[in-house]
Structures are given as structure tokens and as C-alpha cells.
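Standup notes
- HV: blocked on the assembly model, inputs below
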Amino acid sequence: MKGLITLSFRNVLRHKKRSLLTILSVTIGIFALVMSSTMINGIDETTIRNYRKTMTAPVKIFNTDYFNERNNLPLENLISDPDQIITTLKSKINHVEITKRLNFRGRIIVDINEVICNVIGIDPASDNRVFNLKNDILDENKGTVYDNFSNGENQCLIGHDLARIIDGAIGDEIIVYTRTVNNAHNAVSYYIAGILNTGNPEIDSFSVVLKFADASILADSSGYASEIDLSLNGNYKINSELLKNDVIHNINGTVSAYTWKEQLKELLTFFAMRKVAQKLIIVFLLILAVTGVTNTMLMAVFERTKEISTLSAIGMKNHRIIEMFIYEGIIIGITGALFAFIISTPPILYICIQGISLVNSDLTQNMPSKIYGYFDFSYYFYAVIAAVFAAVTGTLYPALRAVRLNIAQVLRSK
Amino acid sequence: MGIIAGFKNITKSYHINEIRIPVLENVNFQLDSEDMIAFVGPSGSGKTTILNLLGCLDTPDDGEIILDKIDIYGLSKNRLAEIRNEKLGFIFQSFNLIPVLTAYENVEFPLLLENISDKQTRKDMVMEILDKVGIKELAGRLPSHMSGGQQQRVAIARALVKKPVLVLADEPTANLDSKSAGETLDLMRKMNEDLKTSFVFSTHDSKIMNFAKRLITLQDGSIVKDERK
Amino acid sequence: MNYLIGYSLKNLTRNRGRSFLTLFAVIITVAILIIGNSYFGGVTKDIVSFATRESGHILIQTKEFTKKERMFPLDKGIADSDILVSKISEIKGVEGVFKRITFGGMFMKGDETFPAVGNAIDPVAERDFIKIENNIVSGSYFTGMPKEILLGVEIAKNLKCKQGDTVMLLTRDSYGSFAGGKLKVAGIFDFNTLQANRTFYISIDDAFRILKVDKMPQKIIIVTNNIDHVKSLKNKLLKMYEINQSEFDVFTVYEHGIMQSIFKILNFIFPMVMVFFVLIALMTISNTMMMSVLERTSEIGLLQSLGMKPFKVGILFVLESMTYGVIGSLIGGLIALPPVLYFKTKGLSLGRTITDGMPMPIKNVIYPNISVQLVLTMMFIGISIALIAGSLPALRAVMLKPAEAIREK
């Protein structure tokens, strides 16, 4: 075994250029695998993380009819008795954190101009235990700003991009206009208590956050809520499916519970499709790499026919000969993977630590404004598996050819 | 002295483009242990085929081959490989050393195949035989850094390291100059005497013919003369 | 020269397994280049056509407007737009110059409300260029009557209205007062993209009247006869006195708003993927050619001793490599064409749920964009790969010394 590996190793080193080229094709395949996984998973993870800390709770309760229309933020099919549901659930589920939100569309009026916005009415104290808007406030004293927002009269938080567009700064007054539940027109002015930078463009570019009570007055919605958001106390690991089950047993027919996966269904479908496309590309690259390895190993078999026959003559068994070639393939595969790790580490570190900024993501609602790579050491593991798989697959045919040689004839040929 | 190998009614032919070319016709002989036998004859007379059959590298169309009391008919490829490893040694015209392995490693290789796992045992065996063939000091060299004569000595050492019952040498001197050839032959005779290993040659070389103890002459696939000197 | 080609071809049959693998690498690469580029081209075309509908091939607006673009300010428009329009119309390559206003408003019909952003266009002048007409799924294009509106299907669905209905549009005019009024739905359009289906169109004359903007459009959009030349046209425009002197921004379709980020991402990722494929193919071929030179060393020596000039020996190997390139590219092209052509007519449906979740305006049915030029370019790349890959080993063959080469075993 050890002797075989030594032999394989020296054989790989025999034609350095050829081996290098083959290793490089494996490297490119693996590099693409590792980099694209980092990038794409990074985009996905960043997006989901941004959603989860700002808008998408592990489990949400919606009015059943509201759910399908939820992206339009209608003021219809609201939850009429949110506080009662919250009280019930709090008493039935351990360690649960619950808050309610009222969401609707509005317009911010600046002089003669206006801009579309989403109004989010939150209950500051409980909201921050389910989501974490406080942490995304652009200010050194996040706590103070959040307190100002919670305790002051007619205060609001506003997305940083939206603030830029309306030239709004802390302390400025903005007028938010909407059409109420009863189709009346209503406009109220608020003071900007703080500016939010969440990384989620739906908040950063489009949202004004009000206190739930203020939002209720603006929309004339009599304390109804668009959604009830549930999470568990920070010390407990959340299984959204289990939490959803707990919730379902304690709510009645007009409202339903949805896990975050159900809330983000379209987005997750898109991610899944993107991953399929990515895998397809990787598979093709690996097929090409396999071709490269097969080519090289075929060469190795052809030019070493005599040697193979000699080994066979002195009593080496066929499966040992196959093994020897496969070791050569594995050496090429692993070296290729190692090369790929080395060259991919700096860009991966950069993407993971520095992140990549995307210029104004005005309309690209789902896309975070800054993407961080998501790296998992398991990628290296998969990469090595893929590389070894590619190498062994590429070696199999040449090795089988090697043992089918007619020893007597080969040895005879000069 | 005993019988080490025997051919009984061996017939062998090759097929080239569906044309049957007979190589051996009804060949019979027995080989003694501790002997030195040379198969001689013109090209195409069947010398190499006999060596290949003896070496279990090829199988006859008809007839029975007994090797060290084993009938090799119908044995699996793996079993044949084991027999080659245990009982036979090969010396080739073009040496056929593994180019990426040093002299020492080339000789050690058959031992690795037999799973002699104790490194020291292997080392002792390899150094002993390298010493016997007189190239102990070249143990660390690669084949490409040795002369033809030196390479053939390594090949002999590799053939003998397992103390086989029979060493098959196909034109062992054809690629050597006459001085190296003479030295190689002397070495093989010495090995024959020291280790009691039988040597079987196929050759055109009159030197070999002179020093072989038994000369079997082939013509058109049949034995025409079998003389002991 | 001919005998060299014949000899090269024969050499390919020497080692069939290897030749096949090498060809295989070229075939896959060329096929993937063609398929990938045509689908990418299809997606790009969709995005460009989306962007063109929004803002032409080139967009001119005041710098003040750009700053507050999301609010669509009505007081930052272009004064004397008529002069500018007629001047730009004279530039070679310009097919159409149109005034545009984009504004937000809220639709109301009974109890239903829907906020949306729409464009005010010149229905007559733009008709043949922007071609909204082709996407009308119910009703018709503007008929020329005042106070007509074209609605995206998303708006129509939400308002539960159909062609011929009247909708109430509430917006604010350039003085900040509430404005709007009743508009008759002339037609409903479907652009197959969620974002685009949430917009509407009214005529610019109606917009001038409703929004009270005194004939000052916010932007001027330009449609050219060849979108590939937008860059040079932009430079020409920037040199124009009227634009040069005023505070105008000039954007090409690739530089504006959402398109900017999309093109930035697409133009980075896609070529990178393609480069990976090209590199691997390059390595496979050069590997094969290196082998070929190596194992034929003594043959090269022989050829040289027969009087073949070293240069010709090099050509021999380049030709051999090119043969891989040519045959591989041809087969790759043949393999790639059927799926691309099939989906070019049938379209590849991604499903609405997926495209609606996408962060960019991609149609839910993709039609790959393939042209003879594209196929030829990709095949050319395939052959170039072979040429480059064959050159180094060929150089090595040229440098061999005949006496040494012929002795080689």
C-alpha cells in the first residue's frame, strides 16, 4: 500500500508539466465550486439574515385571506384581536416572544413632491425582542435613539436611503400620507428620531417605522394588526416548524401561522433555482476536468505499457495495478483541490470580511445592498470529495485498459 | 535434483487477422532444478513463446504445463500472478526496470507485493542480493543513471530476491556490450551455483550457448535437438 | 501545405482515445459557450428592452432631477425641451427623441386602491419605437381620445377592472395640490415581468394638463438605430452646446438606475464562468499536444533529417491542434443548436412564481437570443483555444535538435 503510493507519487512527478496542466484543470473546477458556493450562499444567507432580523419572524400569524395579498400590504383582512391572541399564546407557549405589526403603503410628502413608502407600525419594546431594528440604527447611541422613538410623540425611524432621497435628517419633520381603512385620505406629520441601515432594501429604501398606536391612527385601523410575529427568547434554539405547531393549536380559524420558509417561499424558490443552475455549471466544469484527468492517465497507461507488463510479470495482481493508477488520479485530484484552496482563500476572505457593495439597489427589492460571502469549511470537504471523484472517475477507464494489456505481447515488443 | 517444470504435448498458435500461425507443435520437455537451460533457434522458432508459457504470461491452446508440481491449467489471473511472484523470476532483454524507482526500490518491489511488512527483513533481503550481484553501492540510483550492465544486474537481483525456483531470461545479453554480457553471464552462473536456482534462457548468443548446461534447439515450433553438455 | 493537413488528420487517428477526449473537451466548451451566451443574451435582451421601455437607449434629464429621482419631482424638468428634441433628432443614428414624465399616483376604483408609478408618453411619436402595442392583451393602444390610460395587468387585477372601465387616478400636481381625475382604460398590457406590469401609461398631453407642468418634461429619451453605438452617441451628446451648458445628466441604457447594478453583476459573473470553461479546454488540448510532441520526438528528428524545415514541423503540430479546434467547434455548434433553436421558438418557461421572486425584471419565459454571428464567434473562440494550446508544444517541436531527437526512444 505504502509502496504503491510512493510509486504513484513518483509517477505523477515524472511528467511535471503534464501533471501540472491536469492538476490545473481540476483546480479550476474546484475553484469555481468553492467560489460560487461562497458567493451564492453568501447572497442567499445575507438576504435571509437581513429579512429575519427586520421583517421575517420565525413564525408569523396572518389572517388567512391576507397571506396571499401580503406583498401589497393591504389594509384589508387584518387581525382584529391581536392582543387577545398574544395573551393566549404567551400563556400557552414557553419562552415565546411575540409582537404585532401593522403594515401599509403610504407616501411621504416633501414640498410639492412625494415618494412611495411602506409604513411599518411596531410595538417598540416587544418588537425588539423578535426582530432587531435597534441594532441597525445609524447612531453611536442606538439605545437612546430607540428610546426617543419609543417615548416621544409622533416619532419615526426611517430607512437611510429613503432619508437621503427626501433629504431628511434627524429631527426633521416629514408628512406621511395614506388612504385609511375606510378609504378616507389622511396625512400626519412625524419627526425623524433615527435612521436605519439594515441591509434590507425594503427597509432601507422604502420604509418608515412608526409606533403601532401612531400607525393605527394614521390608517384609522382601530388597533387591528397586519401580522403577529413570534420568536423564542434569545437563549432558546428556534425550530420554526415546532413553534408553528404550538401556535396552530392555540389559534382559531380566521388566522393561520406561517414559518419563515413559507413567508419567503418565492424567494427561496428562486434561490433553489439559482442553485440548480450553479450546480449544473459545476457539473459541466467537473466533466471537463474528468476529461483532462482521463486524458492524462490514458497517456500514462500508453507510455507505460511495458512497465505495467513488467509489474504484472513479477507478480503484481491486476487490482493492485488498478489501485496504483487510481492513487495517481487521487494525488492529482487532491493536489488540484489544494491549489484551489490556496488561490480561493484570499478572495473568499475578502468577500467574507469586507463584503461586496452593490451600488444603489433602488428597485432590486430582494437584493441586499451589501453582500457578504458565506463560507463553510464543509465546502472544502465537498471540494475534496468532488476532486477525488473527478480524478478517480477519470482514472478508471485508463486503469482498466492497463490491466487488459496482453503482457506476453507487450514484453515481446521492443 | 528434481523436476522443476514440464511441458506435455504443448501446442500454441497465434491469430493474426484470423490467420492461424502455429508457433509450437506438440512440444514436450522436462526441466531439472539447479540447471541452466538455453532454448536456441532462429527467430520465430518459438523460444520466446516457451518462456512466456513457462512464465505464466500466456496460456497454451492444448497440453499440460506443470510448474513446481502445480498444473497451471485454468488458474485465475490473480493466482497466476501469485505463482509468478513466488516461484518465478524474470530477466528481460531491455531490463524493464521501473524508471521512477531506485535500484533498491526496484528490487524491493516484489517483496512489497508479497506483503513482507517488516522493513528490516526486506532491507536485509534486498541488500544481500544487491551485494551478491555486486552493485550494493548503487542502491540509491535511478535506472536512468546506470549503465546497461548495471541495470541488468538490478534486474537479476530483482528476479532473484524472492529466491525463485526458476528464473526466465529472454535474450538477457542482447542489449549489452560483450564485456557486460560476459560479466552478466558469470554472475548468473554464480547465482545458479550459490542459490541453486534454475535458469532458462532464450538466446541467439553463442556465449550463452557455451555456458548453458543443457541446450534445447527449436525449429519451426518443434524441438529438433536436446543435448546436455 | 495540403500534405501537412492530411498528415495531421492521420495523426489524430493514431491514438483514438486521446483524440476523442480532446475533441470532447472542445465540443463541450463550444456547446456551452453557445448555449450559455444565447441564454445570457436572451436575458440581457429582456432587461434591455425593459430598460428601453422605461428610458430609451439614452436618457437625458437634469442633474437636479437625478438627485431626487425616486420622488419624480415635477419642478426639475427640462425647459425649452422642443429645441433640444429637434437638435438631437438631427444627429445621425438617432431614430426617435421623445419627451417623458414619470410620476407616482394612487388608483382608486370602488373600494380598491393601488399605488403605482407610470409614464406619460407621446402616443403617436413613440408608437413605432417603444412598441407597447405588441404587449396589449386586452383592449387597444391609445386611440387618440383624451384621458385614456394603459394599465399593467397587475394593476388591472388589483383594481378588478377591465378595458373600457373608468379608473380614478389620484396624484399631486407641480404645485403640490391633489390632482388627478377619471381616466378611461383603453388597454391592458402584459410585459411578462412583475415590475413592468405594475406600471401604467398616459399621454404626455394629459400629463401636462393634469400635473400642471407647463410643457416641461422631466426627461428626454432617445432611441437609436443601433444599441451597440450608445456610448459614442452619448459622448456626442455630451459635447452638444445645449447639454454641455446646462446641468444635464446623460445616461445610456446600461448606466441608469436598476440596470446599472444588474449589468454590473451579470457582466462580472457570466464572463467569469465562461473563462473557466475556456481555461479547462485550453489545458486539455495543450496537454494532448505536449504528449503528441513528446512521443513523436524521434519522428520529428526523422522528418527534419528528411529535410523538413523546423518551421514546417511547428506548423504540423499547430495544424494538428487546429484540427481538434475545427472539428470540436463544428460538433459543439451542432450539439448546441437544437436545444437553443427549440427554446428560441417555444421559449423556456421559468414559471411566474420564480421570476416574481427575482430581484430583477426577468421575463418568466426566456427566449434564447442566437445569431449566426454568435455561433461563428464561439466556434472561432473554440478554434483559437486550439491554436493557442497548440502553439507552445509546436514551439518545442521546432526547437528540437534533429540529431538528438532521432536517437530518442
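- HV (later): unblocked. Chain A has two domains: 2-51+267-412, 58-262. The first strand of chain A starts at residue 59 and ends at 63.
- Next: hand off to the docking folks.
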